[in-house]
Amino acid sequence: MLNIITYSTLYPNAATPVHGVFVENRLRHLVDTGKVSARVVAPVPWFPFGHRLFGHYGEFARCPAEETRHGLRITHPRYPVIPKLSTPFHASLLERWSRPAVAAILQQNPDIDLIDSHYFYPDGVAAVRMAKSFDKPVVITARGTDLSLLADDPKVRPQIKWAAEQADGLITVCEALKDKLVELGIPADKVRVLRNGVDLSLFHPVDRDAARTALGLTGRILVSVGLLIPRKAHDLTISAMPQMPEAQLLIAGDGPERGRLEQQARGLGVESRVHFLGRVPHDRLKELYSAADAMILSSSREGWANVLLESMACGTPVIASDVWGTKEVVTSQAGGVLMKSRTTDGLVDAYHRLFASLPTRAETRRYAELFSWDDTTAGQLELFRDVLRSA
Question: What is the DSSP string of 182-235?
Answer without folding.
Answer: HHTT--GGGEEE------TTTS----HHHHHHHHT--SEEEEEES-SSGGG-HH
